[in-house]
């Protein structure tokens, strides 16, 4: 199964990127790291589709069979970088394809609003968004940025439930 994992953070280093990389490794998926590359700000003009990064993004998403969207929560919402990337795509890319949502929060009460916004956008793109989801709080990480053993086990459980053959 071809799985695309979106690291929805514009930060080069951080917990969201770490989670996305770990998911990509576990699922042997393609990582779309939004902290790399040169995806322009979406403005709705067709000419933007000629951008090499936009063309690459559309190609790998079109070929994917499933997705994992990972976003930090910024000011009670999903990352603008992830929203920008999704704006370049359409329902023809996501219709009926399984999509798992993960959020990374900076505090003990964050994450749910980012998940809710991603879920709304997923519905707008006709993705088959999973009911199961996961939020990573700062306590889920150990000193060097890796997931704690408990969080690693929980992530494994979530991924196994969503991608039983893959994990």
What features would you describe in this structure?
With 167 residues, the protein is an alpha/beta fold. It has one domain: Flavodoxin domain (Rossmann fold, 3-Layer(aba) Sandwich), CATH 3.40.50.360. It has six helices and six strands, in the order E-H-E-H-E-E-H-H-E-H-E-H. It has helices at 15-27, 52-63, 80-87, 91-94, 112-124, 149-162, and strands spanning 3-7, 30-33, 66-74, 77-78, 98-104, 128-136. Strands 1, 2, 3, 4, 5 and 6 form a six-stranded mixed sheet that branches. Strand 3 (66-74) and strand 4 form a beta hairpin. The radius of gyration is 15 Å and the shape is globular. It starts with a strand and ends in a 5-residue tail after the last helix. The model has no long low-confidence stretch (mean pLDDT 92).
Write the layout of secondary structure elements.
Elements: E1 3-7, H1 15-27, E2 30-33, H2 52-63, E3 66-74, E4 77-78, H3 80-87, H4 91-94, E5 98-104, H5 112-124, E6 128-136, H6 149-162
Parallel strand pairs: 1-2, 1-3, 3-5, 5-6
Antiparallel strand pairs: 3-4
Key features?
Rossmann fold, single chain, 167 residues, alpha/beta, oxidoreductase activity, FMN binding, Azobenzene reductase
Outline type: globular
| Helix percent band | 25-40%
Radius of gyration, in Å, reads: 15 Å
The biggest sheet, with number of strands, parallel, antiparallel or mixed sense and barrel status, is: 6 strands, mixed
The tally of strands reads 6
- What distance lies between the first and last C-alpha atoms, to the nearest angstrom? 11 Å
Tally of separate domains: 1
In CATH, the architecture is 3-Layer(aba) Sandwich
**What is the average of the pLDDT values?**
92
What is the CATH homology-level superfamily?
Flavodoxin domain
> What share of residues are in beta strands?
15-25%
The CATH class, by name, is Alpha Beta
What order do the helices and strands follow? EHEHEEHHEHEH
Number of separate helices: 6
Structural class: alpha/beta
**CATH fold title:** Rossmann fold
The low-confidence parts are none
């Amino acid at each position: 199964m071809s799985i695309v994992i979106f690291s929805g953070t514009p930060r080069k280093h951080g917990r969201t990127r770490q989670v996305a990389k770990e998911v990509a490794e576990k699922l042997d998926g393609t990582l779309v790291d939004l902290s790399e590359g040169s995806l322009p700000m979406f403005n709705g003009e067709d000419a933007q589709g000629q951008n090499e990064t936009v063309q690459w993004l559309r190609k790998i998403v079109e070929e994917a069979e499933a997705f994992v969207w990972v976003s930090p929560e910024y000011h009670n919402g999903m990352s603008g970088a992830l929203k920008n990337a999704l704006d370049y795509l359409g329902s023809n890319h996501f219709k009926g394809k399984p999509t798992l949502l993960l959020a990374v929060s900076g505090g003990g009460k964050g994450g749910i609003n980012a998940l809710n916004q991603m879920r709304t956008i997923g519905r707008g793109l006709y993705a088959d968004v999973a009911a199961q989801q996961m939020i990573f709080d700062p306590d889920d990480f150990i000193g060097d940025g890796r997931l704690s053993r408990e969080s690693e086990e929980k992530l494994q459980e979530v991924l196994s439930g969503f991608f039983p053959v893959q994990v």
